[in-house]
Amino acid sequence: MYNAELLSDRIAAASLERRRNREMQRQDRIFNAKVRTIGIDKEALVSQVNERKKKEQAEAESLKAYAADAVRNDKAACLLDQRQLKDERLLQGAIEDFRLNFQPRWSRREYDLSNPDKIRGQEKIQMLPGLVGEDPDSQGRLKKQQEQLREWSFQQQHELATARHQQRQEEQQYDQDRVDLDNKALQLQTIEEERRRTVALATKNFNLTKATENAEKRWKEWQQQEEDNRTDILNQLQGELLSESQEQGISVLGLPRLSPNSYKGLADEQLQHIINCQQQQIDEKRRIQAEQQQEELQQDRFRVASARTALLMERQQARINKQLRRTQDNTNAQLAEAHHEQTKYLEKVYTNIPDDSYFSQFNTSSR
């Protein structure tokens, strides 16, 4: 058997692969802590959007060029079709004229070649003089036929030469039309290239102008920023912020309030008060630590006593377990002795023990 893969199997496998890929991508997005907590990369997305726009623009230009080529090819194909139709009409007309002039009805095979006018003059048939089947005017009729054939040959040669001359003229006209079309296409291509060069030059000039404007704008912004920085530094140096006077820190609302932007430090009384508060906090912390140490010591004594009591209880339980084990061993020995005596008795009573032949008679069929 050949391992033939069905279309439904391929479609199901492709669908399963797509779901698996989507699940893996989803897991990458969910379990990636950086993307989940920080967010997406905006610069990368912007670059992707710009690349996609450039790609779409390139595709649009390619499609436009392809459409122009298709229009040019369609025009050439239309001209060729018209030329072919015209040639077919001329050929059909020439065939009809040749049939009308050189293949009349009376010149067909079913007519008498010796007398082409026989059908025309059937109503006026007369018996020839002489014997039946004689033709006294055969020489004159043969001469007329030869002259007629010569005239037909000259006429055919003239018509053939005329047709060849007309065909050469038409071919020259066709070549001239193709040359004109090529020249027109070349002219259109030259105009398109000139337009593209003009657009590229205009774009380049616009970009240069824009870059110059941006550079001037950045230069002016830098100068303005430097001027602002110098003014700010001068204001800071000449203002009250860098002075060492503690009176600058008093708020306009009164003494209890302070001004954060002009505060220069604490007074000596405030510092002494803070030092006293800190000393009180240190003493309080030491007292609390002493109490905690006393409490921990009591807890350690309680844990030691509890451990000693647990050890005594474990030893007592071990002695009890040892006694129970001895009792159980004695009971097991008595039971083993009784089982041994019972086995010996059964061996004496039951002497007919079944062998393999007895069991082989069972389960010999599937029913």
TrEMBL record:
It is found in: Cytoplasm, Cytoskeleton, Flagellum axoneme. Microtubule inner protein component of sperm flagellar doublet microtubules. Residues 157-176 are annotated as: Disordered. Belongs to the RIB43A family. Its main location: cytoplasm. Pfam families: RIB43A (PF05914). Residues 167-176 have a biased composition (Basic and acidic residues). This is RIB43A domain with coiled-coils 2. It comes from Oncorhynchus mykiss (Rainbow trout). Keywords: Cell projection, Cilium, Coiled coil, Cytoplasm, Cytoskeleton, Flagellum. The keyword Cytoplasm applies.
